[in-house]
Prior knowledge:
The complex is a heterodimer of chains A (about 120) and B (about 110). Chain A has about 120 residues and is mainly beta. Helix content of chain A is about 0%, strand content about 55%. Chain A is globular. Chain B is mainly beta and about 110 residues long. In chain B, strands 2, 6, 7, 8, 11, 12 and 13 form a seven-stranded mixed beta sheet that branches. The mean pLDDT of chain B is about 95.
Amino acid sequence: QVQLQESGPGLVKPSQTLSLTCTVSGASISRRGYHYSWIRRHPGRGLEWIGYIYYGGNTQYNPSLKSRVTISLDTSKNQFSLEMRSVTAADTAVYFCARDDDSSGIGSFDCWGQGTLVTVSS
Amino acid sequence: DIVMTQSPDSLAVSLGERATISCKSSQSILNSSNNKNYLVWYQQKPGQPPKQLIYWASTRESGVPDRFSGSGSGTDFTLTISGLQAEDVAVYFCQQHFDRPFTFGQGTNLEIK
């Protein structure tokens, strides 16, 4: 069974860079047919898709965040990562990594990490 | 971006009764080439990640109780919980994956009356 687990600092200072890693177990991240996403939920608000990465390191980002975000793949560690630059308090959220599934379509997330709270504050 | 709008924002239903949540998209999310609606329903409980309940608007995820059902097509969709149970208390989200960026509804908070 596939499991995803986020890790990274829970507190980031304004204007600095938020860096999170998602470790995938139970499946090879190199396998074709899956897309690995980052999604966040602001306190008391809805969910926002940040972007995804897939086989070969190809990426797609939410245009609203594209200028500040990079998602990368480390196949040797079976991990993918999120880097978000120039953060502000508005980036305070619970960050989830997630995977979609061939049977339910790209962008239909059937497997999620537990989520990690990132607070942007000085 | 495709805007997803859920109603109501909050809903209180008695145990054993039916709960109905609506989700409307700002444009059609029906792919005419495969006749699939690119609409997913999730359930999120406090401290947990979202759990996929329904995909392709009406296909129940494996292991999801059959009291959960999804319907609709084009721009109007419904999640129905028939015979509400205490463990169904959660926030429910719809999401479209017809086009990027993938977008979610604002969520419906379901409580017991």
